[in-house]
Amino acid sequence: MTDSESMIYLDYAASTPVEQGVLEAMTAAMTIDGNYANPSSTHAAGLYSNVLIADAAAKLAGLLNTQPERLIWTSGATESDNLAILGAASYRKDRGRHLISMRTEHKAVTDPFSELAKNGYDVTWLDPEPDGLLDIARLEDAMRDDTQLVSVMHVNNETGVIQDIAAIGAACRDRGALFHVDAAQSCGKLPVDLDDLPVDLMSITAHKFYGPKGIGALYIADRKGVHVEPLLFGGGQQRRLRPGTLPTQQIVGFGETAAIAAARMHEDFAHITQMRDRLWNGIRDVPGVRVNGTLDKGFPGILNVSVEDVEGESLLLAMEPFCVATGSACNSKSQEPSYVLRALGLGDDLAQSAIRFSFGRPTTEAEIDFAIERYRQGVARLREMAPGRAA
Amino acid sequence: MSTDPYSPEVRALFADPAHAGAIDDACCVELDDQGLRIALYATVEDGTITALRFLAWGCPHLIAAAEAFCRDYEGRDPGQLLEFSSSGLMQSLSVPVEKTGRILVLEDAVRSLGNVVREALKAQED
């Protein structure tokens, strides 16, 4: 299926379209008629670029209720995660080398931890409960005197499970460990109050909430002991924590994205909740279907379902023209069942049958109704073809 | 270069698997390997395969390959089942190399079916 006009997109957890207002703001910051000057330049044009960047930082800081100077621009959540984890571990290596994360984290978190484990750090991987949530008592049991960093994502990218980052952060503060949150799936979609939350480092990205790809940020709390060593060298930008010429148009786009999200968050949340509930109510009576994660404590923008006796890749093809995911879009080319779903206790067959539907601003009731029809038809057809189910 | 992971042949066979299903009282094999499940059914009359059917739990390439096999081998001598090679299907369906193992599961199933058919014919002769 390559004809984009006939596609129906229900993969908004993978990426979202750029809002028109964001595109216009970006264009104005990159053409000959706009402001394309290097924001590090000290002439008037460069200073004006800097004003645009400061304005964008203020908008993003407003969305997160923090101060603009707490934000470091990056290329996206993956870089932010790497900078937070590798940078904080390096900064605090003389205090201890024990780190904690969960088996359900995104690869952008698990891979940096795995790299640290190869280099003398001791990493504890916490299992989730069957619904995907972290049991705080399990975290507290895993904490040691030399624990330096805990990383738990806010909203899981595959299941939509929302972790209680306030409680996790409080447990980290009690033991003197830094707390990093990958908020790629929640930023701009759920209220995040960094002035109130006990979070030390937070990774965010623009393209998950209608902004451009290629721009993200890392929040670094203004608190004693919270710091990261840089991963890149070569300039003095951003207090040397992340050098390199700032991409004015990307940052301006991110700022505009944040401003729109702040204004629309409650409306967006109500809409995706309606879409998620409509879809689930339309397929919940399919025999053997189950939600991966939890509806009660899940982000309504994501509905991950498995069904017995159906193989996921075939179901995905049977679902065309829908663009949905069989797991995280980042690893869906893998032949392996999702490690996230297996961590929730699913066997290979159920994990392979998983489909992640994710909803966005443009999603319509008609699309959901068509998805229900396609899903039911696909499951029925593939079941008829499965050995052991023949009449 | 196409970005479509499925060739037009795979899409067509997956969309309309005319040979999907089971046959009662037919020669039958079931294989459960590499996370895939496949069952093949064959009826033979007068030294000719008169009907082939399949059931499969697997990816679109496996389903398409099973359908193509059933379509291509009806009307043939059952002895050819023992000589079945998946390499032709790999090429004609443009199966990606990482899916080779899955199509080899079909090859194993077809050859097992050939053995079952041979034993059944031998029993009839006895």
Structure description:
The complex is a heterodimer of chains A (391) and B (126). Chain A has 391 residues and is an alpha/beta fold. Chain A folds into two domains: 4-16 and 265-385, Aspartate Aminotransferase, domain 1 (Alpha-Beta Complex); 20-260, Aspartate Aminotransferase, domain 2 (3-Layer(aba) Sandwich), CATH 3.40.640. In chain A, 38% of the residues lie in helices and 13% in strands. Chain A has eleven helices and twelve strands. A seven-stranded mixed beta sheet of chain A has the order 2-8-7-6-5-3-4, with helices on both faces. A three-stranded antiparallel beta sheet of chain A has the order 9-10-12. In chain A, helix 7 crosses helix 11 (365-385). Chain A is globular, with a radius of gyration of 22 Å. The two termini of chain A are 32 Å apart. The model of chain A is unreliable at 328-332 (pLDDT under 50). Chain B is α+β, with helices and mostly antiparallel strands and 126 residues long. Chain B has a single domain, classed as Alpha-Beta Complex (Sufe protein. Chain: A). Chain B has helices at 8-15, 60-73, 87-92, 100-125; strands spanning 27-33, 36-45, 48-57. A three-stranded antiparallel beta sheet of chain B has the order 1-2-3, with helices on one face. In chain B, a hairpin with a 2-residue loop joins strand 2 (36-45) and strand 3 (48-57). In chain B, helix 1 packs across helix 2. Chain B is elongated. The A-B interface holds A 1-2, 309-311, 313-314, 317, 335, 348-349, 352, 382, 384-391 and B 2-4, 6, 11, 14, 17, 20-22, 30, 35, 37-39, 55-60, 63, 98.
Main pleated-sheet profile of chain B: 3 strands, antiparallel
Most extensive interface: pair and counts?
A-B, 21 and 23 residues
Query: How do the SSEs of chain B run, as a string of H and E?
Result: HEEEHHH
Separation of termini of chain B? 57 Å
Q: What is the CATH class designation of chain B?
A: Alpha Beta
Terminal residue distance of chain A: 32 Å
What integer value in Å does the Rg of chain B equal?
14 Å
Structural class of chain A: alpha/beta
Number of strands of chain B: 3
Percent of residues in beta strands of chain A: 5-15%
